[in-house]
Amino acid sequence: MNKIWLIRRFAMAFITIIVTIIISWALIEYSPDSPANALLSNVRLNEASNPKFAQIYASELQFYNSLVPHGNPIVGALSYLMNVLHGNMGLDVISEVPVTTIIATALPWTIFIVSTSLIISFFIGIRIGQKMGYKRGTKTDSSLTTFFTVLRSIPLYISGALLLFLLGFEFHLFPSGGAYSANVTIGPNLGFIISVLYHSTLPILTLTLANLAGWALHMRANTIYTLGEDYVSFAEVRGIKDKLIETKYVGRNALLPLYTSLIIGIGFSFGGSVFVEEIFSYPGVGNLLYYAITNNDYTLEMGIFIIIITAVVVGVLLADLTYSLIDPRVRHE
């Protein structure tokens, strides 16, 4: 792998993260519900309800009014960026706890359900999609294609709500919320692990169904395309066994384009977990983001945005760095 290409890719990823953080900061800082505007509206509300408020807190009012309009945006953006690069995302507006501490508590739960659902849906989806491609044009292929097309069109929050209603409230097969039972001892013990797996079943199932259709349909299309390649026809003429052609000649090459989607999908799944975690009251980053937005907790919002941005950019970078390792035909100059 060319060193110059590596340096260029790492530099591009770093610049992308920096620019995206600055843009996110500016959108929140200069929005109608910005921190300064929210603080000033509360002060003015108190001032209107209590005539003596302006006299008692004259110096504070002068300071709050100086927040709007904002100061130098370049200085503000660089100041925030330097704090982030030093691991300081500020204090949570409501709890006054460091944002990094709050996110560190919620992040493992999101990583667990996102990674588990992606792995399950990926391997099941590519296997089904490969069989669909081999049986193209048959009733089985048509039925499964229709089913997965409909499944893919169902919004994530709809499928999650249906699963919660049927399996959670109607048949009481799984818990309706939380990450573990209240009566278990938290730690590396069997009871806690079973409780975590039990409570995560519905969130993982929802995310798995949402991703499964896409993997299956993409693998079907790639399999059909690969079956038309000359090297597959030549292998059939040579009399190579169908099972070997299916796995080594067709399956492996049809799978390569999906590898990039899998790595990148890990980053994007952090954003999709918002609906699932809110529906099932799962204490992950998605649920935390919903809480931050509804409560105008801007420091927590920015911290979560940074995590999502970094996850997506790192996913794209890993896909670029590792794709040439699994596909020898790809070479970077």
UniProtKB/TrEMBL annotation:
In terms of domain of life, where is this protein from? Archaea
**Keywords, ordered alphabetically:** Membrane, Transmembrane, Transmembrane helix, Transport
Taking the record's annotation, the residue ranges forming a coiled coil are none
Q: Which GO terms describe its biological process?
A: transmembrane transport
Subcellular locations according to the entry: Cell membrane; Membrane
Q: Which Pfam families match?
A: BPD_transp_1
In this protein, which residues make up the domain named ABC transmembrane type-1?
107-318
The UniProt transmembrane annotation reads: 7-28, 106-126, 147-169, 189-210, 258-282, 302-326
The record's Gene Ontology cellular component field reads:
plasma membrane
Indicate yes or no for the key word Cytoplasm: no
Give the record's membrane topology.
Multi-pass membrane protein
Record family assignment:
Belongs to the binding-protein-dependent transport system permease family.
Q: Under which name does UniProt file this protein?
A: ABC transporter permease
Please give the organism. Answer: Acidianus brierleyi
User: What taxonomic classification does the UniProt entry list for its organism?
Assistant: Archaea, Thermoproteota, Thermoprotei, Sulfolobales, Sulfolobaceae
